[in-house]
């Protein structure tokens, strides 16, 4: 992987230019990991020491700050308005609504304080963090009747949907862009009238579709492209009226579809089971979803180049150990949630023309800042929280330019000599991690637990596994509802459901199971009911959280394994997110193209 140009190399000394790769031991999980020579060059360019955590432990540490889905009722700390926040009250003392956050009444510089060189940096930062208000949720741009969304930009009439941009009437979905009138989707763009689409693009009136694009009026399809009226089929290209991968006439196709009675839950559930077997046992899986990209390893990479060990990357270059990076980002290492960013390192949600930010969380339009949280349009700030249009600040205190750079160098030196020792003991070692300059925020500073942030969807794990890894698991408050109907009592046929059904409070079969984040009870919204009736789809029998967990089963964790192509006679090797013990048939790019096209 090449992060630097020839001109960049001329700025480096001879030793770093020719430094060989090194194997080091992660101080967190105690597994060995490799730092490549190109990585050393990158660290030298940005003047940051090499990491002491392995790539996966660094990913988890960053993602512990990224909570999409878990919202709670709060009160704005300034105007006392009732709001819905992503920050739990027991972890973040004060949150502000958008109006107060943007008003002249808020002055984060009042929280400014001197740096105490007798204490570690992270100890002091945590004190600032406890007293400084945060923006209650991440909303941006135009937003109409979409209060129950998070990481939400330019949306209208959306509900319980997260990391969505430019959507309308999108419910119970995540990582969706420019879509409308769609429910229960994950990882999609330009969807319309769709239900349960996962990693799909430009589908219309298509339900239960996985890794499919430009499909119309289809259902239970996997890896299909430019298809219309296809059912229970996979690996199709440019097909119409295909049932179980068999070409039929229009009349024959309609007869076969009617037999399944997908308007009933019993018929739909039967198809769902057939679909699962088809995907696992009777379909060809390409080793990775890498399209129009060169020199790329990872998954779901589009229109990009020089992408290494990264996932959900679009229109970017020179990205490594990162996820959800898009909009012409480049030269970023160890980042999550970056749009149009450059030379960022160990950042989470640093977007919109960010440049040279290190160890930052939700810093938008910011430049050359380090260890900052929840700030916008800042430059040359260090260890600051909640600043807007500020520069040359340390711990929210303003300095002159020359004084700022002198103190920063002194702080970095002190961070190396007086490191923060984590209060959290690693179960495998019994020791607390050592945090010097060059490490992201310690785990205990995050306001979220493993099961209440995005890392649980990227690297799924159950409670005992999470605790054994040394991370927090939050016991969710048990919800009490006046249940009026058990899900088993819902009428089988959607045509027998009348409009009064929206008044029912339905008991989810998982009965509050923490591993699914089950909400115990749920309701069907008016738009939702209209959608099911229009599309002749049955009422879901599980709550939105449990349905979200069902969708995640069709997505692989963000880990790569070295494997061989499973087509007989082929010896090609590749890195894939399909673990060796998985049952699917995995082909290399060449064999996949030969078979499918």
Structure overview:
- It is a single chain.
- The chain has 597 residues and is of the alpha/beta class.
- Among the domains are: 6-54, no CATH class; 142-201, no CATH class; 290-387, no CATH class; 485-551, no CATH class; 561-596, no CATH class.
- 21% of the residues lie in helices and 30% in strands.
- The chain is built from 14 helices and 42 strands.
- The strands form 13 sheets. It has an 11-stranded mixed sheet with strand order 7-8-9-11-13-14-15-16-17-18-19.
- Strand 33 and strand 34 form a beta hairpin.
- The protein is globular.
- The relative contact order is 0.11.
Write the topology of this structure.
Elements (H helix, E strand, L loop, with lengths): L5 H5 L3 H4 L4 E4 L6 E4 L1 H10 L8 H9 L8 E4 L6 E4 L9 E2 L1 H4 L19 H11 L2 E2 L3 E6 L4 E8 L4 E5 L2 E4 L2 E4 L2 E4 L2 E4 L5 E7 L5 E4 L8 E4 L5 E7 L5 E4 L2 E2 L2 H11 L4 H17 L2 E3 L3 E2 L2 E9 L2 E10 L2 E4 L2 E4 L3 E10 L1 E2 L2 E4 L5 E2 L5 E4 L8 E4 L2 E4 L8 E4 L2 E2 L2 H17 L2 E6 L6 E4 L19 H4 L4 H6 L16 E2 L19 E2 L13 E2 L3 H10 L8 H9 L8 E4 L8 E4 L8 E3 L1 H8 L1
Parallel strand pairs: 5-6, 7-8, 8-9, 9-11, 10-12, 11-13, 13-14, 14-15, 15-16, 16-17, 17-18, 20-42, 21-22, 22-23, 23-24, 23-25, 24-26, 25-26, 26-28, 27-29, 30-31, 32-33, 37-38
Antiparallel strand pairs: 1-2, 3-4, 18-19, 33-34, 35-36, 38-39, 40-41
């Amino acid at each position: 992987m090449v992060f630097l140009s020839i001109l960049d190399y001329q700025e480096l000394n001879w030793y770093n230019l020719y430094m060989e790769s090194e194997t080091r031991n992660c101080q967190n999980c105690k597994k060995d990991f490799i730092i490549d020579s190109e990585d050393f060059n990158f660290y030298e360019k940005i003047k940051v020491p090499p990491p002491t955590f392995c790539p996966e432990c660094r990913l988890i540490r960053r993602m512990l700050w990224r909570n999409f889905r878990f919202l709670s009722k709060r009160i704005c700390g300034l105007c006392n308005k009732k709001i819905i926040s992503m920050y739990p009250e027991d972890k973040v003392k004060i949150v502000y609504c958008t109006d107060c956050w943007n008003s002249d009444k808020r002055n984060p510089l009042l929280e400014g304080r001197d740096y105490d060189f007798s204490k570690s940096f992270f100890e002091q930062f945590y004190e600032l963090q406890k007293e400084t208000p945060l923006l209650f949720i991440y909303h941006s741009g135009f937003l109409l009747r979409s209060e129950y969304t998070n990481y939400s930009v330019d949306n209208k009439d959306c509900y319980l949907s997260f990391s969505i941009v430019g959507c309308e009437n999108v419910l119970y979905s995540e990582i969706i862009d420019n879509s409308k009138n769609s429910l229960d989707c994950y990882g999609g763009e330009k969807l319309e009238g769709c239900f349960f689409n996962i990693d799909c693009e430009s589908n219309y009136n298509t339900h239960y579709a996985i890794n499919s694009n430009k499909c119309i009026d289809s259902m239970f399809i996997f890896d299909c492209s430019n298809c219309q009226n296809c059912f229970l089929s996979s690996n199709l290209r440019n097909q119409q009226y295909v049932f179980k991968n068999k070409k039929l006439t229009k009349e024959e196709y309609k007869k076969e579809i009617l037999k399944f009675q997908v308007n009933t839950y019993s018929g739909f559930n039967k198809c769902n089971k057939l679909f699962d077997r088809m995907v696992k046992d009777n379909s060809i899986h390409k080793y990775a979803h890498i399209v129009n990209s060169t020199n790329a390893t990872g998954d779901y990479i589009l229109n990009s180049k020089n992408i290494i060990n990264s996932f959900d990357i679009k229109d970017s270059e020179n990205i490594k150990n990162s996820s959800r990076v898009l909009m012409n980002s480049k030269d970023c290492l160890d980042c999550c949630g970056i749009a149009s960013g450059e030379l960022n390192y160990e950042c989470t949600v640093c977007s919109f023309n960010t440049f040279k930010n290190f160890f930052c969380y939700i810093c938008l339009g910011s430049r050359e800042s380090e260890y900052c949280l929840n700030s916008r349009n800042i430059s040359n700030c260090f260890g600051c929280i909640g600043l807007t249009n500020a520069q040359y600040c340390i711990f929210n205190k303003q300095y002159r330019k020359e004084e700022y750079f002198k103190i920063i160098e002194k702080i970095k030196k002190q961070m190396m000599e007086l490191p923060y020792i984590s209060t959290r003991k690693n179960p495998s070692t019994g020791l607390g991690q050592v945090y010097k300059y060059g490490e992201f925020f310690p785990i205990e500073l995050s306001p979220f637990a493993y099961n209440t942030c995005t890392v649980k969807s990227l690297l799924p794990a159950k409670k005992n596994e999470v605790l054994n890894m040394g991370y927090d698991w939050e016991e969710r408050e048990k919800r009490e509802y006046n249940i009026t109907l058990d899900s088993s009592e819902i009428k089988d046929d959607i045509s027998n459901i009348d409009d009064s059904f929206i008044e029912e409070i339905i008991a989810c079969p998982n009965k509050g199971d923490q591993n699914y984040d089950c909400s115990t009870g749920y309701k069907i919204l008016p738009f939702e009911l209209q959608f099911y009736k229009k599309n002749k789809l049955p009422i879901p029998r599980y709550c939105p959280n449990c349905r979200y967990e069902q969708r995640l089963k069709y997505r692989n964790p963000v880990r790569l394994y070295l494997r061989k192509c499973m087509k007989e006679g082929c010896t090609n090797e590749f890195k894939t997110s399909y673990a060796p013990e998985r049952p699917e048939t995995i082909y290399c790019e060449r064999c996949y193209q030969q078979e499918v096209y």
